[in-house]
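Weekly sync, protein design subgroup
Attendees: M.S., D.O., the rotation student, P.L. (late)

Item 1: inverse folding check
M.S. brought a backbone from last month's batch and wanted to see whether the design step gives back something sensible before we order anything. D.O. pointed out we never logged the input encoding, so this time it goes straight into the notes. Structure tokens as presented (151 positions):
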């Protein structure tokens, strides 16, 4: 639509089914590249991606051409299919139901990107559960304990 301008940054968090530590260093880079391709093919810009064996953080610059929910669905379903079709994981890989999506102010993009890039160092001192609860609280997201990821 003419004269429509948007600049939206979204910080996504996806957890592996049952929070299993299955994203191996042997194939995490291939997974991240594939996710980058999904995002790019949807007309969005992946700023950074990183994570741990049981969860992934993604920072995306989004246009108004797709919803936050639709992009999360496409990333999760297509990346799980990619892992399974390429036999990267012994067993069936899947993401846990749900996700976190947090808006990021343009002034905080660099800080959030650095945070995501330093996931492995960050998690030496904090569990994923504590991290996720902190993200929810900082973003002032109302949540119910029974609907959080399985921890």
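Designed sequence read out in the meeting:
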């Amino acid at each position: 639509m003419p004269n429509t301008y948007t600049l939206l940054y979204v910080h996504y968090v996806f957890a592996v089914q049952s929070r299993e530590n299955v994203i191996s260093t042997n194939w995490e880079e291939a997974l991240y590249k594939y996710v980058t391709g999904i995002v790019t093919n949807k007309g969005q810009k992946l700023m950074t991606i990183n994570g741990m064996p049981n969860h992934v953080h993604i920072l995306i610059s989004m246009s108004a051409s797709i919803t936050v929910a639709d992009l999360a669905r496409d990333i999760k379903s297509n990346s799980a299919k990619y892992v399974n079709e390429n036999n990267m994981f012994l067993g069936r890989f899947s993401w846990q139901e749900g996700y976190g999506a947090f808006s990021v102010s343009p002034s905080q993009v660099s800080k959030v990107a650095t945070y995501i890039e330093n996931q492995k160092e960050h998690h030496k001192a904090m569990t994923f559960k504590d991290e996720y609860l902190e993200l929810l609280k900082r973003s002032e997201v109302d949540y119910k304990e029974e609907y959080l990821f399985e921890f």
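Discussion: The chain has a mean pLDDT of 91. Residues 8-147 form a domain with the Alpha-Beta Plaits fold (CATH 3.30.70.1290).
Action: P.L. to compare against the previous round before Friday.
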